[in-house]
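Shift notes (night). Ran Cytochrome P450 while the centrifuge was going.
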Amino acid sequence: MTTSDSKPDPFALLQEPSVRADPYPLYHLLREQCPILIEDGPLALVGSYEHSQQVLRDPAMSSRLQDLMPGVGRPDTDPPFLLLDPPDHTRLRGLVSQAFTPRAIAVLAPRITEIVENALAEAAERGSIDIVADLAYPLPVTIISEWLGVPTSDGESLREWSQLLTRTFDLNVGSDERDEIARAAKDFDEYFRDLIAFRRRTPGDDLLSQLISVEERGDRLTSAELLATVGLLLVAGHETTTNLISNGLLALLRHPDELARLRADPGLTDAAVEESLRYDPSVQLVGRVTKEPTTVGTLPVPANTWTILLIGAANRDPARYPEPDRFRLDRDSVPHLAFSYGPHFCIGSSLARLEAGIAFRTFASTVVNPELDADTLSYRRHVNFRGPDRMIVSFDAAR
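Came back to this:
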């Protein structure tokens, strides 16, 4: 199916404040029309689970969005392996994955638990918590910063840089904002160039030192590759986990029977994490570019076409999930696309799952009679990275 500029622009619709709060009715409508080719793009939209999975494993599809859209990604730096194709992607992912072993991730569990318990204990004294500011943001940024060996005192700078740099992966970035993003990227790069140089001279037991020392068949990450990788881990990694925790706790609060089930049976923690990822994914859109003509379903897609997967629509595809708009912890274990699929499956998925699982389980066991203040619930202006920016919950502490 093709469309033209006489049709409503789906990206303009997704940026509407009312749609940002709940984009899923629009996703359902778009999925019924997809796959579609917007002729003046050239742009293809893909909405179903089947077609999205097909695109993610199609060798004709490239992750090098910056080749077609130079504004994508961080300005004036090497692209992270997220925006590379084999063999470059294969090489860099293989090197970085050596630091993301199950043992390395598991070691972080006690510190994650400590941060969550402390945040909820402090909130209990007040009788309320801002889920985003007090828990969902500080948890992953503290963990990744400490793991990288970044001093805690520099956390506020990292937050400011991160909030701007994540905008490079969104749809509605104006020229004025790009100037701010460029300054943030410059400051970020200068900071981490100095830290990388220091860790080359004085290695520690942190992740940055591990990435510097990683070696496979004589291969190493160059300084530019290290810088791009650190940017990806710090910016994309913690932002998506923040949204996972916020979106998941919001879903549990809006479905008190499911929250009660989790409280009664902590063994449902993994199910709560996976259902949160499916029901309201942190990353709503994934882009690819066609290196050569291909077909999505029965739709011919020309070369050099920007292809957008509506992950929020695919994860609620009724052809894949019964009652897709219901949040339920007893759902059959059907894979979702929240962490992508195939060679670009999220390298940080184990850490994100661990952090969210501890946050959900501890919240359920600690918080009694939670009540969401709906008037305080507001969403970030991102279309791609979806999550609240404020979310106040009052509660009683468990005794």
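The chain has one domain: 10-396. The first strand starts at residue 2 and ends at 3.
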